[in-house]
């Protein structure tokens, strides 16, 4: 019940705000509270302090105490770390809202956009201990009295969104619902980066920002980011939500934190014999709804008529046209009733936003993971830091309950990156550190992260037990920009044209050199040599070069550029000379680095970051082939396993090391590994197989053991990541 203190209506409004159970009501009561207190909610820099000052209400003071404790952490520098930054956050899911809170605490102006008008996701999330601790520190118990009471370690997505929405608004985040993001608007004139929105006339369309965080969900990835698919053998998940009337009879029904076939075969055999339902596992949580999630066997679904026709393709198999909704509902109903011993009276489906029973069937073995977590775009001198959080960064494997836990880790990591950005750290260093942290995300578990939850903050060192923030160096990350990171010229035609004109200007007059594009004009290697000769004529003798000896010319240019300017090649000489489809963006990046290096004052001596500036002893003379090969290998990365040179276009990076894609295989079974789908096992000492490094990389499924599975209540799915 709201307070009836008629002498101060803002107290009653505050109570209504705290107790609100819908997104619309939260926003409505918040707006009314601001009106009554005569506070401008868009005055983000002073809003929270003015609210505390004007709302002198004992029920609010316990909340202020919690928020003040969080805001007082040294990382936020009293809300001044990002005081000059403006941030746009896309998506009001738990991770989007949690990100907005951290950015607001850092002092940034934060605008959050959400396409939906309401929060309607009933599914229940498993919470790791640190997540519970974190949410309690934001007033979760104040906003939702039943939050993780007793031994409960879960909460519905809807309730979690409401908790975080309320905290966001109190901290000055500007939240807009019913707004669709259609893309970024490039800077023009005096305007910086903006968003293209629907409706076009929405006030947020004029908001200019220098930080963009996407929490738009698993299938939404902004331009410039790439996703990798992690697919295993088919595993079909079913979720179902039933109305919770909160009766005494319902309260007495025990939850099921995880029943797996391998640990309770009789239960599943009885389920099959009595109902025809064949499951691998089942989980039951009580929250706003009675929530069930289970893994069903395809044969059982076909036999029960849930799936109409068998297909080898998972998308066809589980397509709406191939699913009988009534049979699916009955399947979920029977499984729920049997697993609770029929003790839940009058089971009735909760409804989804479309007004239909809240039952869903999906293939959870197809998951996506972004290749990189961050990037920087620059146009007209205006930089934009972009980052991913939530499911559009890493889709969770739901039986492990990792979604919101790793999601919040990524939120804190992103906030730490934005903090560095706001403090003026060079953007390559900011990005390199973020990607170093991202390498660890998919391997985090409650067991291998810090247990000192009270010390958790946005600084990664307080959360990850063993972390090397420099496992990826800025110069290494610079090379990786080829594919995914900083769009230097790839964003615009004008950028390409500007670079092309620069190349043409400085190669004009050289025989057999005619630069017309960023592909075929460079195959002979003479254009690269001409650029070197133009700026450093003593380094190369153009008269000695033969147009037909393409590999030699390219190799010579690569060697000089790496040795003298610290610019490693992005591909092998043979790839550039013989490829019919030269990677344009790769070459653009390479030439951009050349232009930037030659644009430095002549007094600046450029060294590769790994070179020692102290002159080395003169090596003994070597034969021509040996000298050429040695020059190419000097100061460059080599494959961790085969020790041969690995070029950017054929390499991947993990744990701060580089590999040929073909070499990045499981140490035990030989299967090619995928980023995010392996675990890194660092052992020491002797006794490892000859030629085998003591540090091993394994597929996740190679290392899951019965103890781990039993602890999480899981059934093992053979070949999950094959």
Automatic annotation (TrEMBL):
Protein's cellular compartments:
Cytoplasm; Endosome membrane; Midbody
EC code(s) of this entry: 1.14.13.225, 1.6.3.1
What InterPro entries is this protein classified in?
Answer: CH_dom, CH_dom_sf, F-actin_Monoox_Mical, FAD-bd, FAD/NAD-bd_sf, Rossman_Mical, Znf_LIM
Necessary cofactors: FAD
Which keywords fit this entry according to its UniProt record? Actin-binding, Coiled coil, Cytoplasm, Endosome, FAD, Flavoprotein, LIM domain, Metal-binding, Monooxygenase, NADP, Oxidoreductase, Phosphoprotein, Zinc
Which chemical reaction does it catalyze?
NADPH + O2 + H(+) = H2O2 + NADP(+); L-methionyl-[F-actin] + NADPH + O2 + H(+) = L-methionyl-(R)-S-oxide-[F-actin] + NADP(+) + H2O
The answer to whether keyword rRNA processing applies is: no
Domain named LIM zinc-binding is located at 637-699
Q: Which GO terms describe its molecular function?
A: actin binding; F-actin monooxygenase activity; FAD binding; metal ion binding; NAD(P)H oxidase H2O2-forming activity
Q: Which GO terms describe its cellular component?
A: endosome membrane; midbody
What coarse category fits the chief subcellular location reported for this protein? cytoplasm
Where in the numbering of this chain does the Calponin-homology (CH) domain appear? 493-599
* CDD domains in the record: CH_MICAL_EHBP-like
Superkingdom per UniProt? Eukaryota
| Top-tier EC class | oxidoreductase
**What Gene3D superfamilies does its record include?**
Calponin-like domain, Cysteine Rich Protein, FAD/NAD(P)-binding domain
Q: Which family does it belong to?
A: Belongs to the Mical family.
* The protein, known as: Molecule interacting with CasL protein 1
Q: Which organism is it from?
A: Gouania willdenowi
Q: What is the lineage of its organism?
A: Eukaryota, Metazoa, Chordata, Craniata, Vertebrata
Gene of this entry: mical1
